[in-house]
Amino acid sequence: MMAPAAVLFDLDGTLLDTAADITLALNRTVREFGWAPVSETAARSMIGRGGLALIERAALSQQRELDPALGERMVERFYQHYGRVEDAGEAVTQPYAGAADALQRLCTAGVRTAVVTNKQHRFSEQMLQRLGLRPWLDLVIGGDSCPRRKPDPLPLLYACERLGIEPRHALMVGDSINDVLAARGAKINVICVTYGYNEGQDPRTLPCDGWIDSMSELPARLLSPV
User: Residue 224 has what pLDDT?
Assistant: First the structure.
């Protein structure tokens, strides 16, 4: 595979292992509404389409009724709790092995880099800054940066527009069917990591253009001479 002009990265389950912090904020939320806590294993299968989907999946797992008004209130509380986890220094989110080095090597080689995630923009920026990854990224697109989020291709197309490149010269790296569908819709090649969340399904079953077992494999795969 020739080096792309830009690499677009998913965040949760791709660059960062965020499941523990998401589970903590989710459980603080559901307890307020009288629901049972959710295990981290279960929460990993619920991550991927933003806060509302997370709450909806938690409700489904507990056979709870969730009308739109209740869902909106719970999502608001979830975001409040999630922000406090980060602000209070409770966060345990860390980059996956090789993520920081991969971003640095791509950036040094002149490849543009961006995060395109369904996580809200402010949380994405905050975590990437705290973990020291933000200097190696040209752009961060959150789930609230566009009118539609992945699996819609719009966020990927918007990222390419902001970076000043054509989609055919980009590569998406993700861990879920949302990333694959968004990339296919944008006509962008997509590589998936084998260790991600993918809503509880094995990422190796995804119909992508290839897999990597570690982010450390990516620069060599993209930058090696043909």
Answer: 66
